[in-house]
């Protein structure tokens, strides 16, 4: 990693102005100013998102699509406007390619069940990577059991990178579905998803990308990736919890069966048969999280308004600085050293259990996460019970990193 010091960071990004947009960062914890480094679990919300949600409930709360009164029309316009915002943000071809869900987990489950019903037969294979989040493992295990297909795992190396030769070796004429993460939540590895997609397509497979960690940390272009499906959550990108997205190529979505039945996903219901609604509504049964979708739209518009490429560069510089500072502490081992990394710093300390460190750090106002991070196979690969994970965002500063390093050093000393 590059050695960086405060006076050397040159990215033209005004982090102090950004921090003013996030009210929770002004609070104290245990008598200390909050240092929030748990962004891979969930990000904090800017004032504009909080205000947008509040204003929706205050002035236009109504159900959407089916009402003809003013409130319903305004809510519908805001909801569908958010769909267009998502489409443009990830460079999808059409708004109809954006399905609103409750989050990445539901998006993957939706995709898994719909793809399985169309594509899978006994003896087929699904390919994932060893570095996946549980949400991109367990649904495929369930599908493999139900449809009598094999779940194949591409290994990672000790830097936390998918071994491309091994990935390609595991592709075959039996591979029907490939599902891989864009950025590892446990290691920060940025996977070469466009290349993986190309290899999978050459083998005749459909590709789903788990983008839960990538939308807030990289410029996502689903057309450039050429994936068939892409899933992400709002709450990891400054939006509310309970809202997510599944992007899908229109032709594929048209061919897939619906995931759930009920209101909104139908055109006509008769006892002798039902006609399903058009895409994307075919996959949006029931009343959606209207305020969440509108809040997601506001969050993505906020990102667009802050010079996002400069923010990404700033995060990378901050990660380099944090990596250098953490390496100054004796006994620290960083877990996840990929050449291409996003803003995740996972580590262990000799003779210190990872569960013991964060409580002592939080007593100093520093919020990090510990455990397996819903990536138990990753921990099994490295033969450790878990890691301490500091995950960064656009509102973190070098002062946050210095506080974090001081907290690690003090906690280490107390546990020695």
Strand order of the largest sheet: 4-10-9-8-7-5-6
Number of helices: 14
Question: CATH topology of the largest domain, what is it called?
Answer: Aspartate Aminotransferase, domain 2
Structural class: alpha/beta
Q: What is the distance, rounded to the nearest whole angstrom, between the alpha carbons of the first and last residues?
A: 28 Å
Radius of gyration: 22 Å
CATH class of the largest domain, please? Alpha Beta
Q: In terms of per-residue confidence, which ranges show pLDDT below 50 for 5 or more consecutive residues?
A: 1-8
Describe the secondary structure blueprint for this structure:
Layout: H1 15-19, E1 28-29, E2 32-33, E3 35-36, H2 47-59, H3 70-89, E4 98-101, H4 104-119, E5 125-129, H5 138-147, E6 150-154, H6 164-170, E7 175-181, H7 193-202, E8 206-210, H8 222-225, E9 229-233, E10 244-248, H9 250-255, E11 266-270, E12 273-276, H10 290-304, H11 308-326, E13 332-334, E14 344-349, H12 357-362, E15 366-367, E16 369-371, H13 376-382, E17 387-391, H14 398-415
Parallel strand pairs: 3-15, 5-6, 5-7, 7-8, 8-9
Antiparallel strand pairs: 1-2, 4-10, 9-10, 11-12, 13-14, 14-17, 16-17
How would you portray this structure in words?
With 416 residues, this protein is an alpha/beta fold. It folds into two domains: 6-33 and 308-415, Aspartate Aminotransferase, domain 1; 50-304, Aspartate Aminotransferase, domain 2. Helices cover 38% and strands 17% of the residues. The chain is built from 14 helices and 17 strands. Strands 4-10-9-8-7-5-6 form a seven-stranded mixed β-sheet, sandwiched between helices. The protein has a four-stranded antiparallel β-sheet with strand order 13-14-17-16, covered by helices on one side. Strands 1-2 form a two-stranded antiparallel sheet. Strand 11 and strand 12 form a beta hairpin. Helix 11 (308-326) runs parallel beside helix 14. The protein is globular and about 70 Å long. The chain starts with 14 loop residues before the first helix and ends with a helix. Mean pLDDT is 95; it is low at 1-8.
């Amino acid at each position: 990693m590059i050695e960086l010091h405060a006076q050397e960071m040159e990215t033209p990004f005004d982090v102090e102005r950004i921090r003013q947009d996030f009210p929770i960062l002004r609070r104290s914890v245990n008598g200390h100013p909050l240092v929030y480094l748990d962004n891979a679990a969930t990000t904090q919300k800017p004032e504009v998102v909080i205000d947008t949600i509040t204003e929706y409930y205050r002035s236009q709360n109504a159900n959407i699509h089916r009402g003809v009164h003013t409130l319903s029309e305004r809510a519908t316009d805001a909801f569908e406007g958010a769909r267009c915002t998502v489409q443009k943000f990830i460079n999808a071809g059409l708004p109809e390619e954006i399905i609103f869900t409750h989050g990445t987990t539901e998006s993957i489950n939706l995709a898994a069940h719909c793809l399985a019903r169309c594509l899978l037969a006994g003896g087929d294979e699904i390919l994932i990577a060893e570095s996946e989040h549980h949400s991109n493992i367990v649904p495929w295990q369930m599908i493999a059991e139900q449809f009598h297909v094999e779940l194949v795992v591409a290994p990672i190396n000790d830097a936390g990178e998918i071994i491309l030769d091994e990935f390609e070796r595991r592709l075959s004429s039996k591979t029907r579905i490939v599902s891989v993460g864009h950025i590892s939540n446990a290691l920060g590895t940025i996977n070469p998803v466009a290349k993986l997609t190309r290899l999978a397509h050459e083998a005749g497979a459909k590709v789903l990308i788990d983008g839960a960690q990538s939308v807030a940390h990289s410029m996502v272009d689903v057309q450039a990736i050429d994936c068939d499906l892409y899933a992400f959550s709002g709450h990891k990108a400054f939006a509310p919890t309970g809202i997510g997205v599944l992007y899908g190529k229109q032709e594929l979505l048209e061919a897939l069966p619906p995931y759930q039945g009920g209101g909104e996903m139908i055109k006509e219901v008769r006892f002798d048969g039902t006609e399903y609604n058009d895409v994307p509504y075919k996959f949006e049964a029931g009343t959606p999280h209207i305020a969440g979708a509108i809040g997601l739209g506001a969050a993505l518009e906020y990102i667009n308004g802050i010079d996002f490429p400069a923010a990404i560069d700033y995060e990378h510089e901050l990660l380099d600085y944090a990596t250098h500072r953490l390496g100054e502490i004796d006994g620290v081992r960083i877990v996840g050293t990929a050449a291409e990394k996003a803003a995740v710093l996972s580590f262990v300390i000799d003779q210190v259990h990872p569960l013991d460190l964060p409580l002592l750090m939080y007593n100093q106002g520093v919020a990090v996460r510990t455990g397996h991070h819903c990536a138990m196979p990753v921990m099994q690969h490295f033969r450790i019970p878990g890691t301490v994970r500091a995950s960064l965002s656009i509102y973190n500063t070098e002062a946050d990193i210095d506080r974090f390093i001081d907290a690690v050093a003090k906690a280490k000393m107390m546990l020695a």
